[in-house]
Structure formats: C-alpha cells, structure tokens
Write a structure and sequence with these properties.
single chain; two-stranded antiparallel sheet; 7 helices; ABC_transporter-like_CS; globular; Multidrug resistance protein homolog 49; transmembrane; Rossmann fold; five-stranded mixed sheet
Length: 215
C-alpha cells in the first residue's frame, strides 16, 4: 500500500504547485476592479450608454505599434452595434471595455460565456465572435437566443459572418483603429464601400460549390 501511495508523490507535488498558482491568481487584485461595496450584480449599474473618446492604445508587449488611434465612438443604450472588419482593432475595443487592459475557444467555451452573461442579466451585452466555433445547427439555436437576449439592452457585437448582424441598429467598420463607415446594413450596402465589398464576398463564398469531376 505504501509503495502504491508513493507512486503518486510526483503528481501530488505538481497538484500542490498548481493549486498555489491558482490561489495567487484568485487573490490578485487588478488595477481596475469593482470595489467590495459595489459588486457587479447590483441595481446601481450603467444606464447602458458606451462612449470612447480619443482613445489611443498599444499592447504592452507590442510597444510602438498603435492599435487604436484617436478612437471616438458613442453607442446609445438599447442599440446593437457591430464592429469590424478583421484586424481593425474591434476586439481591442471590447477588451478595453471589459478592463482586460488598463488604458495606456471553442463552442463549449462560448456557450458557457453566453450562459454566464445571461445569468447576470446585464444592461450591456458584449458578444465577441459568440457563434464562430459552432456548427451551423448550433449557431442557429444560439443566435436565436442571443437575438432575444439583446432586447432592451445595449449590445456590442463582433462577428466575421456579416449575415449574423444584418439587423443591428448601427454597424461600424474599422480600419487601422479608425471608424471609416457606419450605418445600418442597407445604408452601408448602398454606400458601396468596404462593408459592401466584404458582404458580397461572403455571399459569393457561401454560394460557391465545387462541381463534381466527371470520369
């Protein structure tokens, strides 16, 4: 029995070390946090308006490479906004809003994150590629739930599949950290700019099929 127990000694030691790291993480107090007398899930919340005013940002590990430059954006409460396209600084906007940085994966993970957001009954709902890792059937179910959940809330959505944000009240197109187009889906399509080009490209790709080879 003793010999069998000793065989697990290395695993126990690794578990103790891992537990210590977790406790250090749990006890860490970030520079920006909710004070104990004002926890997140109280009636004393934001009205739902979001404002970015002359925001400049670069990642701490990538000094000298600006991600956002003089970024200005006002989102009214109760509206749904889509930020894009790829590599334009949209995810950085959301990360700053969530205080992942101080101012200077998978389908299962997304489902858990969505469920946690709904339990908190927030006034501001932030969806960063909420359905990107889901299959088509799961995406449809989750998207319908999200469409219902955003009712009456300020909602910021980041999505590469533009068909998922056609009903947004305001769609913002970012390039090199700046808003270059904004409007509804129909307005941006009529503008025939970057959004229109991206949307048409996605529609063509979705409808494209490779013909079967003939013998």
């Amino acid at each position: 029995m003793l010999g069998q127990a000793l065989a697990f000694a290395p695993n126990i030691n690794e578990a103790v070390i891992s537990a210590g790291r977790l406790m250090k993480l749990f006890n860490r107090i970030p520079n920006m946090h909710n004070p104990q007398d004002k926890p997140f899930n109280t009636e004393d919340k934001s009205e739902g308006n979001i404002t970015y005013e002359n925001v400049d940002f670069e990642y701490p590990t990538r000094k000298g490479i600006p991600i956002l430059q003089k970024f200005n954006l006002h989102i009214k409460k109760g509206t749904t906004v889509r930020l894009g396209p790829l590599r334009s600084g949209k995810s950085t906007c959301v990360q700053l809003l969530l205080c992942y940085y101080d101012p200077l994966s998978g389908g299962q993970k997304q489902r858990i994150a969505i469920a946690r957001a709904m339990v908190r009954n927030p006034r501001i709902l932030i969806l960063d590629e909420a359905t990107s890792a889901l299959d088509m059937e799961s995406e449809k179910v989750v998207q319908e739930a999200l469409d219902a959940a955003r009712s009456g809330r300020t909602c910021v959505t980041i999505a590469h599949r533009l068909t998922t944000i056609r009903d947004a009240n305001l769609i913002c197109v970012l390039k090199k950290g700046m808003v270059i187009e904004q409007g509804t889906h129909d307005e941006l399509i009529a503008l025939r700019g970057m959004y229109s080009d991206l949307y048409m490209m996605q529609q063509i790709a979705a409808n494209f099929t490779i013909p079967n080879k003939r013998n």
